[in-house]
Amino acid sequence: MTSFEEAETEETATCLHMTFYHPCQEDKMVFRCLNFCKREQVRADEMANFGRDSNVCHYNLVDTRVSRIQFSLQFYRKLNSSEFCFEIKNMSKKTKLFVDQTELGYLNKIDLPWKCIVCFGDYQILVEIQEGESMDYFETHLHLTKVPILQERCLPSLQPIPENVIFPSLFPSQGKSPIEIDENES
Protein backbone atom coordinates (compact mmCIF):
# COMPACT_ATOMS: atom_id res chain seq x y z
CA MET A 1 0.00 0.00 0.00
CA THR A 2 1.09 3.53 -0.65
CA SER A 3 1.20 6.23 2.01
CA PHE A 4 -1.85 7.79 0.37
CA GLU A 5 -3.86 4.60 0.90
CA GLU A 6 -2.72 4.29 4.52
CA ALA A 7 -3.48 7.91 5.43
CA GLU A 8 -6.35 8.53 7.85
CA THR A 9 -9.66 9.64 6.38
CA GLU A 10 -9.91 13.40 6.45
CA GLU A 11 -12.97 14.74 8.23
CA THR A 12 -14.41 18.17 7.71
CA ALA A 13 -15.06 20.58 10.55
CA THR A 14 -18.16 22.66 11.06
CA CYS A 15 -17.15 26.22 10.18
CA LEU A 16 -18.63 29.41 11.52
CA HIS A 17 -18.16 32.15 8.89
CA MET A 18 -18.54 35.57 10.50
CA THR A 19 -18.48 38.86 8.60
CA PHE A 20 -17.98 41.90 10.86
CA TYR A 21 -19.07 45.50 10.34
CA HIS A 22 -18.77 48.62 12.50
CA PRO A 23 -19.27 52.17 11.14
CA CYS A 24 -16.15 53.49 12.93
CA GLN A 25 -13.76 50.67 12.01
CA GLU A 26 -11.65 52.92 9.77
CA ASP A 27 -11.11 55.46 12.60
CA LYS A 28 -11.14 53.36 15.76
CA MET A 29 -9.94 49.97 14.45
CA VAL A 30 -12.27 48.09 16.83
CA PHE A 31 -11.51 44.79 15.06
CA ARG A 32 -7.71 45.11 15.09
CA CYS A 33 -7.28 42.10 17.42
CA LEU A 34 -9.33 39.74 15.24
CA ASN A 35 -7.58 37.37 12.86
CA PHE A 36 -9.31 37.84 9.50
CA CYS A 37 -9.23 35.59 6.43
CA LYS A 38 -7.63 32.65 8.24
CA ARG A 39 -9.51 29.67 9.63
CA GLU A 40 -8.94 28.97 13.31
CA GLN A 41 -9.74 25.76 15.16
CA VAL A 42 -11.65 25.87 18.43
CA ARG A 43 -12.00 22.79 20.62
CA ALA A 44 -15.58 21.54 20.84
CA ASP A 45 -15.59 21.77 24.64
CA GLU A 46 -14.53 25.45 24.68
CA MET A 47 -16.81 28.49 24.63
CA ALA A 48 -16.06 30.98 21.88
CA ASN A 49 -16.25 34.28 23.80
CA PHE A 50 -16.45 37.67 22.08
CA GLY A 51 -15.79 40.85 24.06
CA ARG A 52 -13.32 43.37 25.41
CA ASP A 53 -11.44 41.27 28.02
CA SER A 54 -8.50 39.51 26.36
CA ASN A 55 -8.02 37.28 29.44
CA VAL A 56 -11.43 35.67 28.92
CA CYS A 57 -12.25 36.28 25.25
CA HIS A 58 -10.38 34.77 22.34
CA TYR A 59 -12.18 37.18 19.99
CA ASN A 60 -11.37 40.70 21.23
CA LEU A 61 -13.24 43.85 20.27
CA VAL A 62 -11.26 46.98 21.11
CA ASP A 63 -14.04 49.27 22.25
CA THR A 64 -14.84 50.56 25.76
CA ARG A 65 -18.58 50.33 24.97
CA VAL A 66 -18.28 46.55 24.51
CA SER A 67 -18.77 44.41 27.62
CA ARG A 68 -15.93 42.34 29.07
CA ILE A 69 -17.74 39.34 27.58
CA GLN A 70 -20.33 40.51 25.07
CA PHE A 71 -21.59 37.11 23.91
CA SER A 72 -20.54 33.49 23.79
CA LEU A 73 -21.03 30.67 21.33
CA GLN A 74 -21.28 27.04 22.41
CA PHE A 75 -20.84 24.20 19.92
CA TYR A 76 -23.03 21.16 20.58
CA ARG A 77 -24.68 18.15 18.99
CA LYS A 78 -28.45 17.72 19.13
CA LEU A 79 -29.73 14.81 21.19
CA ASN A 80 -30.23 11.61 19.16
CA SER A 81 -28.91 13.34 16.04
CA SER A 82 -25.68 13.77 14.11
CA GLU A 83 -26.48 17.46 13.54
CA PHE A 84 -24.10 20.02 15.06
CA CYS A 85 -25.39 23.41 16.20
CA PHE A 86 -24.32 26.56 18.00
CA GLU A 87 -26.01 28.27 20.89
CA ILE A 88 -25.53 32.01 21.31
CA LYS A 89 -25.81 33.61 24.75
CA ASN A 90 -25.85 37.32 25.62
CA MET A 91 -23.30 37.89 28.40
CA SER A 92 -23.75 41.68 28.61
CA LYS A 93 -25.78 43.18 31.45
CA LYS A 94 -26.02 46.55 29.68
CA THR A 95 -26.45 45.79 25.97
CA LYS A 96 -29.17 43.74 24.31
CA LEU A 97 -28.12 41.30 21.62
CA PHE A 98 -30.25 40.80 18.53
CA VAL A 99 -30.19 37.58 16.48
CA ASP A 100 -32.15 38.52 13.38
CA GLN A 101 -35.31 39.97 15.00
CA THR A 102 -34.99 38.09 18.32
CA GLU A 103 -33.91 40.25 21.26
CA LEU A 104 -31.75 38.59 23.91
CA GLY A 105 -31.32 40.16 27.33
CA TYR A 106 -28.59 39.27 29.82
CA LEU A 107 -28.02 35.48 30.01
CA ASN A 108 -30.71 34.76 27.40
CA LYS A 109 -29.66 32.17 24.82
CA ILE A 110 -31.03 30.63 21.63
CA ASP A 111 -29.89 28.27 18.91
CA LEU A 112 -28.03 30.12 16.19
CA PRO A 113 -29.83 29.86 12.82
CA TRP A 114 -27.65 28.52 9.98
CA LYS A 115 -27.61 32.06 8.54
CA CYS A 116 -28.40 35.16 10.58
CA ILE A 117 -27.35 38.67 11.52
CA VAL A 118 -26.19 39.32 15.08
CA CYS A 119 -26.32 42.96 16.24
CA PHE A 120 -25.44 44.87 19.40
CA GLY A 121 -24.72 48.59 19.64
CA ASP A 122 -23.27 49.64 16.27
CA TYR A 123 -21.91 46.14 15.58
CA GLN A 124 -23.33 43.96 12.80
CA ILE A 125 -22.14 40.39 12.26
CA LEU A 126 -23.35 38.14 9.46
CA VAL A 127 -23.07 34.54 10.68
CA GLU A 128 -23.21 31.55 8.34
CA ILE A 129 -22.73 27.95 9.46
CA GLN A 130 -21.03 25.50 7.11
CA GLU A 131 -21.73 21.93 8.20
CA GLY A 132 -18.97 19.48 9.03
CA GLU A 133 -18.39 16.10 10.67
CA SER A 134 -15.78 16.59 13.38
CA MET A 135 -16.91 16.18 16.98
CA ASP A 136 -13.57 17.32 18.42
CA TYR A 137 -13.45 20.88 17.12
CA PHE A 138 -15.06 23.49 14.92
CA GLU A 139 -13.52 26.31 12.91
CA THR A 140 -14.09 30.02 12.73
CA HIS A 141 -13.41 32.05 9.60
CA LEU A 142 -13.67 35.81 10.16
CA HIS A 143 -14.19 38.41 7.45
CA LEU A 144 -14.40 42.20 7.49
CA THR A 145 -16.70 44.36 5.38
CA LYS A 146 -16.87 48.12 4.88
CA VAL A 147 -20.54 47.96 3.85
CA PRO A 148 -23.28 47.76 6.51
CA ILE A 149 -24.57 44.20 6.55
CA LEU A 150 -28.18 45.16 7.16
CA GLN A 151 -28.04 47.48 4.14
CA GLU A 152 -26.13 44.97 1.99
CA ARG A 153 -28.63 42.17 2.64
CA CYS A 154 -31.60 44.40 1.78
CA LEU A 155 -33.41 43.53 4.98
CA PRO A 156 -36.63 45.37 5.68
CA SER A 157 -36.02 48.89 6.82
CA LEU A 158 -37.37 50.13 10.11
CA GLN A 159 -38.44 53.33 8.34
CA PRO A 160 -42.21 53.88 8.12
CA ILE A 161 -43.78 53.38 4.70
CA PRO A 162 -46.18 56.16 3.61
CA GLU A 163 -49.79 54.97 3.20
CA ASN A 164 -50.13 56.36 -0.32
CA VAL A 165 -47.29 54.23 -1.75
CA ILE A 166 -48.37 51.23 -3.83
CA PHE A 167 -46.10 48.24 -4.29
CA PRO A 168 -47.22 46.47 -7.52
CA SER A 169 -45.48 43.23 -6.54
CA LEU A 170 -47.86 42.87 -3.60
CA PHE A 171 -50.86 42.69 -5.93
CA PRO A 172 -50.72 39.63 -8.21
CA SER A 173 -53.98 40.57 -9.94
CA GLN A 174 -52.42 43.46 -11.85
CA GLY A 175 -54.58 44.76 -14.69
CA LYS A 176 -57.80 43.45 -13.14
CA SER A 177 -60.40 45.87 -11.85
CA PRO A 178 -61.40 45.59 -8.22
CA ILE A 179 -64.79 44.02 -7.62
CA GLU A 180 -67.08 45.65 -5.10
CA ILE A 181 -69.16 43.23 -3.02
CA ASP A 182 -71.96 44.18 -0.70
CA GLU A 183 -71.30 42.86 2.81
CA ASN A 184 -74.77 41.23 2.84
CA GLU A 185 -74.04 39.20 -0.32
CA SER A 186 -72.60 35.73 0.06
From TrEMBL:
Q: Which CDD domains match?
A: FHA_TIFA
Q: Which InterPro entries match?
A: FHA_dom (IPR000253), SMAD_FHA_dom_sf (IPR008984), TIFA (IPR033621)
Keywords, alphabetical: Cytoplasm, Immunity, Innate immunity
What cellular component terms from Gene Ontology apply here? Answer: cytoplasm
Task: Just give the chief location class.
Answer: cytoplasm
Keyword DNA-binding on entry = no
Q: Name one GO biological process term.
A: positive regulation of canonical NF-kappaB signal transduction
Q: Where in the cell is it found?
A: Cytoplasm
Does this entry carry the keyword Cytoplasm? Answer: yes
Q: Which residues form the FHA domain?
A: 50-121
The family note in this entry says: Belongs to the TIFA family.
Query: What is the protein name given in its UniProt record?
Result: TRAF-interacting protein with FHA domain-containing protein A
Provenance organism: Chauna torquata (Southern screamer)
